[in-house]
Amino acid sequence: MKNYDTLSEAINDLQTNDYTYNFNLKPTCLECASLKLQINPEDFEVDKIYRFEGMSSTDDNSILYAISSKNGVKGLLVDAYGMYAKNISEAMRKKLR
């Protein structure tokens, strides 16, 4: 797995390598707004996970997930170190571990 120094560097590189869509985390699924698509936990895989730590504050910590869905949609999800974990279903929490 490739290492990146910054979140933006990782996003830019992964977008050029077929992870072209942006996912939003919903309580029971991932949402791709540009495709008007919702993907349930059983319908996607987490291909890669990258963690980034902020230099000045722990509030700057984030996780980048590279995700592939069963229907061929590949994209990225950015989370602030589990910041939204309490607002998602157990199935989503297990999938994003």
Please count the helical segments. Answer: 2
**Total count of domains:** 1
Order of helices and strands: HEEEEEEEH
Ranges where pLDDT stays below 50 over 5 or more residues in a row are none
Number of strands: 7
What is the makeup of the main sheet? 4 strands, mixed
Q: Which strand order does the major sheet show?
A: 1-7-6-5
Task: Briefly note the structural class of the backbone.
Answer: alpha+beta
Proportion of beta-strand residues: 25-35%
- The overall pLDDT, averaged over residues, is 89
Distance between the termini: 17 Å
Any idea what the shape is?
globular
List keywords for this structure.
single chain, 97 residues, alpha+beta, 3-stranded antiparallel beta sheet, 2 helices, 34% strand
Task: Describe this entry's structure for a reader.
- The chain is of the alpha+beta class and 97 residues long.
- It has one domain (7-95).
- The chain is 16% helix and 34% strand.
- The chain has helices at 7-16, 90-95; strands spanning 21-22, 24-25, 30-32, 37-39, 44-52, 62-69, 74-79.
- Strands 1-7-6-5 form a four-stranded mixed sheet, covered by helices on one side. Strands 2-3-4 form a three-stranded antiparallel sheet, with no helix packed on it.
- Strand 2 (24-25) and strand 3 (30-32) form a beta hairpin.
- The model has no long low-confidence stretch (mean pLDDT 89).
